[in-house]
Structures are given as C-alpha cells and as structure tokens.
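Try it yourself: sequence plus iron/sulfur cluster, in.
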Amino acid sequence: MPGDETVFECRRCGTCCRDLVQEDKGVLRGLTLLPGEEELFPEASVRPAVGIGRRPHERGFTVIAHQLVEETCPHLGEAECRIHDRRPASCRQFPFSLREGPQGRQQMGLDLNCPALAEIVEGRTGLRIRFEDRRSAERLLEVSARARERPKKAWFYDLENGKWMRYDNLIDER
Ligand code: SF4
Ligand code: SF4
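Structure, out:
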C-alpha cells in the first residue's frame, strides 16, 4: 500500500564489513567506535578517531571515539559477523545514518552500497523505511555534534599520516 513503512531486512552478506577505511573531509578514517567498543577489537587494530581539547597529547585532551584501522573487520566470518549481538553502533545503524541538516534537524542517510537496501529503493519514490536502530545513529551523531560545537578544540585522527587534524581545518564538503 502506498505510504506504508517498509521494513529493511539485512541479508548478512558482509559487504558493510569490508572497505572500512575511507576518506572523509580530507581525513582517512576507519569504522567509528564509541567509547568502550574499542575493547571488542585487538589493540593493534584500533586508533583514536575524535578528540576534544586544546591540543592532542596535552593534559585534558579527551578521546571521545576510536576507529578500526582494518579494511576488513577481523570479526567477519565467511559472510556473517561473529560478534553480531555485541557489534558496534556503527554496524547496528547501517545502512542508515543520521546527519544534522538545516536548523539542526536530523536527516536520515541511506547507504546504497548495501545491496539489500539498494534493491528496496531502486526505482521507488516516496518510500518510507523503518529506521531500525535510530538510537545507535543518535549516539554517533552526538560525537560529530560535540566536534562541531567546538571546531577549534575538536580533532580528527588521520590514518593516512597518523596525525591529528583540527576540525576547522577539515574540508567542508557541504
Ligand atoms: S551490506 Fe546490507 S545486507 Fe549486507 S550485511 Fe551489511 S546491512 Fe546487511
Ligand atoms: S563488527 Fe561485525 S558487523 Fe561490524 S564490521 Fe565487524 S563483522 Fe561487520
């Protein structure tokens, strides 16, 4: 029926567990991990991602998110996630996401690299899809909101060169 809410069903194909390191606003970044989630991964596979403070490594500098440095997640089995029930918020929200739109309104993003979602969306307009794990997306949005609020004190760690980049020096792609 037109206007009905469509339910997205993950096929557990593993596509979203590969090619995890990507460029964003001029910074090479891996899968974002919220506080505590870094403990799900081997220490050598994790780096800081977002920090708040006057300068990195100074007293008071706080890392508010980490990132996975691997292109393919070490928890990916043949195609299934081996830690499905404990997977990070970045995985739980996918293929949906939230970003801040005009007047601070939340806008839903859809990642059509997910074949199951691409199939639902193809050739259809006015589609309403149930956002399965909005809370995970909100928690991730809170991290970027904290950075945006203090652009001169927010830092993003670039995997390309292993250096921190200040938020107000990132490339604005809006
Ligand atoms: S790419 Fe889509 S269908 Fe495949 S595992 Fe990820 S969310 Fe599920
Ligand atoms: S934790 Fe699981 S769902 Fe997330 S990237 Fe790794 S294998 Fe995929």
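One thing you can check immediately is this: The chain has a mean pLDDT of 93.
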